[in-house]
Design a protein that fits this description.
The chain is mainly β. About 0% of the residues lie in helices and about 50% in strands. Strands 2, 4, 5, 6, 9, 10 and 11 form a seven-stranded mixed β-sheet that branches.
Length: about 110
Amino acid sequence: QVQLVESGGGLAQPGGSLRLSCVASGFTFSSRDMSWGRQAPGQGFEWVAAISPDSTDTYYAQSVKGRFAISRDNAKNTVYLQMNDLRPEDTAVYYCNRNTYWGQGTQVTVSS
């Protein structure tokens, strides 16, 4: 079955960086778009970034453009989200996504 397992969340200071990873299994990873989304407390879900199977196309929410970078390693069945210049408003649970499948989420907290 499809499994998506995120890791890499934690506490960061404003201006700091974190890199999230999502290891996928149960499907042909190299042929699927992958995405990251986030859910902040009391707020709606937000799509953050997406990447095409061969990494030629990427999408970013305006709120993270220029600060976050999505990438993937098809040999490792892993998609990454490099988050730089973190802000308190980036605090959320971050989820890896493929179509209708979601990971369990990883908490990112940005606070001094």
